[in-house]
Amino acid sequence: TENGRPQSDLAGKRIVITAGGTREPLDPVRFLGNRSSGKQGVALAESAAARGATVILIAANLEVPAPTTVQLLLVSSALDLERAVTETAADADAVIMAAAVADYRPATVRADKIKKDDTGDSLVLELTRNPDILAGLAAGKKPGQVLIGFAAETETDPDLLLALGRAKLARKGCDFLVVNRVGWSEGFASDRNEVRVLDSAGDIVCEASGTKMSVAQRILDLIA
Ligand code: CTP
Ligand code: CA
């Protein structure tokens, strides 16, 4: 190719990629969600397939079309996503957790729509912690499998951002952690991304900025 990267350096590899943002149901018509568009995960899936991998894309509420070159599993909530990723991770060479997974879900899902007349001027929701899917995958990882997590942080100081990333890496136990800053305008909906990737020792192994597609290629280079 143009940049000298072989076209099929991921041939024969099975890669599971989660993308998008989970939605946690509250009642039949409402959910708690986040602003993840799924663009970075979709770029990873598309690039990995183009480089010869068999890609399973676990897609949570994408705002962009899924590539036609991947096996698509549609999920919505964090618990759905957990089920799909644990089933498919068992025989995967790499798992990339690009999805924004809700940390909490409503403690109860109402059978009927919540009505203002029943709740009054304020409504308190009780939320329950969702399982940490990435930490679970790390605990059950087979030898040789590469596990990549993402860390979305609003911290603006680059050194503090990195420190948060290192602490998160230690908690998760993944092989690589892609650290990126998110905010009202950067990260989620954008077509561009700026990331630093840490290895399991906490060292920076890659710094990439540009389109989400070019960042995807650099992340896949680490797997290749
Ligand atoms: N993740 C996960 N399961 C969760 C929450 C997050 O697998 N219940 C994954 C995400 O897909 C991402 C990584 O963990 O790859 C880091 O997500 P992030 O929200 O940045 O970290 P948290 O551990 O949830 O910490 P916090 O939100 O408190 O910063
Ligand atoms: Ca979180």
UniProtKB/TrEMBL annotation:
Pathway: Cofactor biosynthesis; coenzyme A biosynthesis; CoA from (R)-pantothenate: step 2/5; Cofactor biosynthesis; coenzyme A biosynthesis; CoA from (R)-pantothenate: step 3/5
Record field: transmembrane: none
Region (Phosphopantothenate--cysteine ligase): 15-224
Source organism superkingdom: Bacteria
Binding site residues for CTP: D103, K113, P131, D132, I133, L134, F150, K168, K172
Obligatory cofactor(s): Mg(2+); FMN
Keyword annotations of the record: Decarboxylase, Flavoprotein, FMN, Ligase, Lyase, Magnesium, Metal-binding, Multifunctional enzyme
A GO CC annotation given for this chain: phosphopantothenoylcysteine decarboxylase complex
Cofactor note: Binds 1 FMN per subunit.
Chemical reaction(s) catalysed: N-[(R)-4-phosphopantothenoyl]-L-cysteine + H(+) = (R)-4'-phosphopantetheine + CO2; (R)-4'-phosphopantothenate + L-cysteine + CTP = N-[(R)-4-phosphopantothenoyl]-L-cysteine + CMP + diphosphate + H(+)
Single Gene Ontology MF annotation: FMN binding
GO terms classed as biological process: coenzyme A biosynthetic process; pantothenate catabolic process
Residue ranges of every copy of the DNA/pantothenate metabolism flavoprotein C-terminal domain listed in the record: 10-223
EC number of the protein: 4.1.1.36, 6.3.2.5
Biological role stated in the UniProt entry: Catalyzes two sequential steps in the biosynthesis of coenzyme A. In the first step cysteine is conjugated to 4'-phosphopantothenate to form 4-phosphopantothenoylcysteine. In the second step the latter compound is decarboxylated to form 4'-phosphopantotheine. Catalyzes two steps in the biosynthesis of coenzyme A. In the first step cysteine is conjugated to 4'-phosphopantothenate to form 4-phosphopantothenoylcysteine, in the latter compound is decarboxylated to form 4'-phosphopantotheine.
Family label: In the C-terminal section; belongs to the PPC synthetase family.
The protein, known as: Coenzyme A biosynthesis bifunctional protein CoaBC
Organism, as annotated: Cryobacterium shii
Gene: coaBC
Residues of the full protein shown: 180 to 403 of 403
